[in-house]
Design a protein that fits this description.
155 residues, alpha+beta, two-stranded antiparallel sheet, ABC transporter domain-containing protein, ATPase-coupled transmembrane transporter activity, ATP binding, ATP hydrolysis activity
């Protein structure tokens, strides 16, 4: 990005000052610590690093980024506009929520109920209520309209 003030920088033994800038930039990649997406399609964001990328290279980039199922679930796939810094994308695909207040987790895709460090139930809110197990019992206690019962349960 910048010429050095002292010393030299070499790639494969060649001083970068002797290289054409385009050739040098084809050999060096910059990986920012912040996730930066442009207000463009997923495809355009992917090919930003290699504008002439083939369709196979784009698919391989998606695969290597573990985004295949995410992209296939979008209505416009790779043509989905992500918004500035990806603001139009959901940030919840990798969310794990730990909650004692069950109302916090009731809309989760999957709820895992632990008892003494062991998984005792897995399912959606509705499934777990239908099973009438530990989750359903905790739900009833937490949603009971009697405030004294709720205070005792939460201790």
């Amino acid at each position: 990005m910048y010429d050095c003030d002292a010393g030299s920088i070499s790639i494969d033994g060649m001083d970068v000052k002797r290289m054409k800038q385009q050739s040098l930039r084809e050999q060096v990649g910059v990986v920012a610590q912040d996730t930066i997406l442009f207000n463009a399609t997923l495809r355009e964001n992917i090919i930003y690093g290699k504008e002439n990328a083939s369709e196979d290279e784009i698919k391989e980039a998606v695969r290597l980024s573990a985004l295949e199922s995410f992209v296939s679930g979008l209505p416009n796939g790779l043509e989905t506009v992500v918004g500035e810094r990806g603001m139009k994308l959901s940030g919840g695909e990798t969310t794990i929520l730990i909650a004692h207040r069950l109302s916090t987790a009731r809309n989760a895709d999957e709820i895992i109920v632990l008892n003494e460090g062991r998984i005792v139930e897995i399912g959606t809110h509705g499934d777990l209520l239908d099973r009438d197990g530990i989750y359903a019992e905790m739900w009833k206690l937490q949603t009971d309209t009697n405030d004294e019962t709720n205070e005792e349960t939460m201790k």
